[in-house]
Design brief:
2 copies of one chain form a homodimer. By secondary structure, chain A is of the alpha+beta class. Chain A has a single domain (about 5-130), classed as 2,3-Dihydroxybiphenyl 1,2-Dioxygenase, domain 1 (Roll). Helix content of chain A is about 20%, strand content about 35%. In chain A, strands 2-3-4-1-5-8-7-6 form an 8-stranded mixed beta sheet. The two termini of chain A are about 20 Å apart. Chains A and B meet through β1, α1 and β5 of A and β1, α1 and β5 of B.
């Protein structure tokens, strides 16, 4: 079912500070501007690597779902991991049929394709995002 | 400096159970056997994805460096992230020159090339592994 490791989601108290770290300390050369996703409660920015991406997420608004994570991990850290799938509904149905807890209905994610999240209790302690592979090559 | 996202290191109390999850729930089709790395204090196994890998690590021996992580995260979770670099000594020297804390001397990792770890306090809360890109295509 799962295809590429699309990205690792990394929570941070400050995307601006994280961008400096990736650029100045790790020498990353392709980093997008940040933008707000109010419906997800996060600011988002991507560090592009040759084969995958780091998705930096910073809380947007008081109801951001990552406040809890940052309270436990004030410096930030790995928040989720995202694998590509061909069809989000088929993936969701297959997981539910096997007893996994899928969080919410499929919705549009930061890459413009449908995503779901699977509960860490069923995923070896990791919050797993599944996303439909974008149809264009630029992702 | 950093190139590909070589792998995400995922700690687990049981590689056997994690393999079942990746195979039966997520449908991963290429998973290596596990092997012991006594000098690192871990059992290791790779879930191969088309563009990257998940490195499953389970404690080996009482002095395993991941007992602490599993005490805090009994189900396991994302433990480190590994980026490829061309030359480990140049990467180490550049990081040290910029004030980052590199853990130990370069040593051979699970892919047979030199690795270092960089302290999470300098890496946005993430334990970062840097590894020299393997010379062959099979990694």
């Amino acid at each position: 079912m799962i295809g590429k490791l699309n990205h690792v989601g990394v929570a941070t108290p400050s995307i601006d500070e994280s961008v400096k770290m990736y650029r100045d300390l790790l020498g990353a050369t392709s980093i997008t501007d940040k933008w707000a996703m109010p419906e997800q409660g996060v600011w988002v920015c991507f560090v592009n690597l040759p084969n995958s991406q780091i998705e930096l997420i910073e809380p947007y608004g008081e109801k951001s779902p990552i406040h809890g994570f940052l309270a436990k991990n004030p410096k930030g850290g790995q928040h989720h991991i995202c694998f590509e799938v061909e069809n989000i509904y088929e993936a969701r149905d297959a997981l539910v049929a096997k007893g996994a807890t899928v969080l919410g209905e499929p919705r549009i994610g930061a890459h413009g394709t449908l995503i779901i999240f699977v509960h860490p209790k069923d995923m070896g302690g990791m919050l797993v995002e599944l996303m439909e592979t974008p149809k264009d090559a630029h992702h």
